[in-house]
Amino acid sequence: MESTRETYGDTLAELGEVYPELVVVDADLSVSTQTIRFFKKFPERFVNVGCAEQNLVGTAAGLAVGGKTVFASSYAIFVCRAWEQIRNTIAHDKLNVKIVVTHAGLSNAPDGASHQALEDIAIFRVIPHMRVIVPADAVQTKAAIRFEASHKGPAYIRLNREKTPRIFESDYQFNDNAIVLREGADVAIVATGTTVYEALKASAQLQKEQISAEVIEVHTIKPLDRRSIIKAAKECGHVLTVEEHNRMGGLGSAVGEVLCEQTPVPLKILGIDDRFGETGQYPELFHKYQISDTFIEHEVKTLLAQNK
Amino acid sequence: MIDIPHLQSIARQIRRDILFQTNLAGSGHPGGSLSCTEILVALYFHVMNVNPVNPEEVSRDRFILSKGHAAPALYATLARKGFFSQDLLKEFRKFGSPLQGHPDFQTPGIEVSTGSLGQGLSIANGVALSGKMDKKEYRTFVLLGDGECNEGQIWEAAMFSPHHKLKNLCAIIDRNQYQIDGTTENILALEPLKEKWESFGWDVKTVNGHDFNELISHFDQLGKNNQRPSLIIANTIKGKGISFMENQNAFHGKCLNAEEMKKALKELED
């Protein structure tokens, strides 16, 4: 178990050696986002704007205009506060700013609804030029951060707070393609971020009941690997998506947009059912909001039964 | 030596171009463009180190028009300076034109897109900080509207610049006393504006924003006396230069008709 935010901080500290133009901007949450690991090594290239997210985004934009490669971080929900600034400057002008958010989804479980972000994929996905990446584990986080540091342009990278299980081998290399983690024939489970592990567990359970569930990991929600989604839909005939996000506007919607135009097949979108989160332990919230393995398993069976 | 008559002549030309652009486009913001004309002329024709032949030159001074609706004034200035053809001004706000309704980063001489108020000072902070980190000599200028100072982000940014001792940064407020819905003091009082900025740690000077001598003498002092960023409150007149437009807020976002154009151009003759 590793936390993606700790990996983020370590990766930044490594990349600071490689890219002298790399700077990091944070909004008074450097211990939480773990950008402090970069600050400790490169204090002269670290900017703390205080708890002022609009200025976080504007300053990051200006640093990029000045020629820097910028990583700007805060909690996912607080960065949403500066959505318009991100749209009008960073994305519009294709500035080299990587917005890396932590504590996304329900992962800031004890802090409750005000500190959780269940809408961010939807609102960043609809901004032109914006890449949206949701790593499934620490290994992929490291690879994604390295990839983004070496490619110019805006990106939104969504990390979480809690330690999460490892999915990928340490030699994993990042690209935008979706990854088939388990082959299957009856249904394709398309998952992102923390729900990938839940999907893998569900698939293993379903196997025992002679249901062959493919698991496709989509880390780059935009630009979406349409080809892999269409291929899986054609081969499996049923698609279920699952994400730690509102059912509306996120991965499920992105997959649905592709399928309804290209390969209409029965589709079930699992996610938080247009509700706010609440205080609790992370697994408790996963259970209550019905995105854990048992619900995936149940919904797969329902989907198959309804569409025999 | 400042050639004041020369600058005044350029300013008259810029004002004519502002009226032509907005008149041809049938829209745009003449009032707040006319109020900041001398500020732009002073910067581009006396103060700033810019090279229209190589707009990306690393050593150039940077300018950001935070009050992006004054685009006609900036476009006229950039054209006059040689960043693009004077002819292009006819295309302001036209479909397919590089001269978008609000400044776009793809137009030569424009550092960053603006138009949504409240954001330019933060961006200028980043640009100035980047220059400071790299020990570059360039200066960063940012022009704010007074009404724009309603935006909370301005004050987030205003705290940041002195904290980081951005003495290579100069913000100018076009203090023309009006915002869209009325006077700044009626809509959301800004005063005491100087004291607000001073208390935030800025080196604040108040000038007549239509007086080249005053503007330039303050611009020339930038970063020489202390470690603080500079703020110039430029007292201006909205619609300046055309008698029937001055302090008439109706011309914030309204262009002149043919009759009014004739009258205005007469007043702007050399």
Brief digest:
Chain A has 308 residues and is α/β, with parallel strands linked by helices. In chain A, 42% of the residues lie in helices and 20% in strands. The longest helix of chain A has 15 residues.
Description of the structure:
The complex is a heterodimer of chains A (308) and B (270). In chain A, 42% of the residues lie in helices and 20% in strands. In chain A, strands 3-2-4-5-7-6-12 form a 7-stranded mixed sheet, sandwiched between helices. Chain A has 2 domains: 2-164, Thiamin diphosphate (ThDP)-binding fold, Pyr/PP domains (Rossmann fold, 3-Layer(aba) Sandwich); 179-306, Rossmann fold (3-Layer(aba) Sandwich). In chain A, α8 (138-149) links the parallel β6 and β7. With 308 residues, chain A is of the alpha/beta class. Chain A has helices at residues 4-18, 30-33, 36-41, 53-65, 76-80, 83-91, 120-125, 138-149, 195-208, 226-236, 251-262, 282-288, 293-306; strands spanning 2-3, 22-26, 46-48, 69-75, 97-102, 131-133, 155-158, 163-164, 179-182, 187-191, 213-217, 220-222, 239-246, 267-272. Chain A contains 13 helices and 14 strands. Chain B is globular, with a radius of gyration of 17 Å. Chain B has one domain (4-267): Thiamin diphosphate (ThDP)-binding fold, Pyr/PP domains (Rossmann fold). By secondary structure, chain B is α/β, with parallel strands linked by helices. In chain B, strands 1-2-3-7-6 form a 5-stranded parallel sheet, sandwiched between helices. Helix content of chain B is 39%, strand content 12%. Chain B is built from 10 helices and 7 strands. Classes of the chains: A alpha/beta (308), B alpha/beta (270). Chains A and B meet through α4 and α6 of A and α5 and α6 of B.
SSE layout and pairing:
The complex is a heterodimer of chains A (308) and B (270).
Chain A: E1 2-3, H1 4-18, E2 22-26, H2 30-33, H3 36-41, E3 46-48, H4 53-65, E4 69-75, H5 76-80, H6 83-91, E5 97-102, H7 120-125, E6 131-133, H8 138-149, E7 155-158, E8 163-164, E9 179-182, E10 187-191, H9 195-208, E11 213-217, E12 220-222, H10 226-236, E13 239-246, H11 251-262, E14 267-272, H12 282-288, H13 293-306
Parallel strand pairs in A: 2-3, 2-4, 4-5, 5-7, 6-7, 10-11, 10-13, 13-14
Antiparallel strand pairs in A: 1-8, 6-12, 9-11
Helix pairs in contact in A: 1-8, 4-6, 9-13, 10-11
Chain B: H1 4-25, H2 30-35, H3 37-47, E1 62-65, H4 71-81, H5 120-133, E2 140-145, H6 152-163, E3 169-175, E4 178-179, E5 182-183, H7 184-187, H8 193-199, E6 203-208, H9 212-220, E7 230-235, H10 258-267
Parallel strand pairs in B: 1-2, 2-3, 3-7, 6-7
Antiparallel strand pairs in B: 4-5
Helix pairs in contact in B: 1-3, 1-4, 1-10, 3-4, 3-9, 5-6
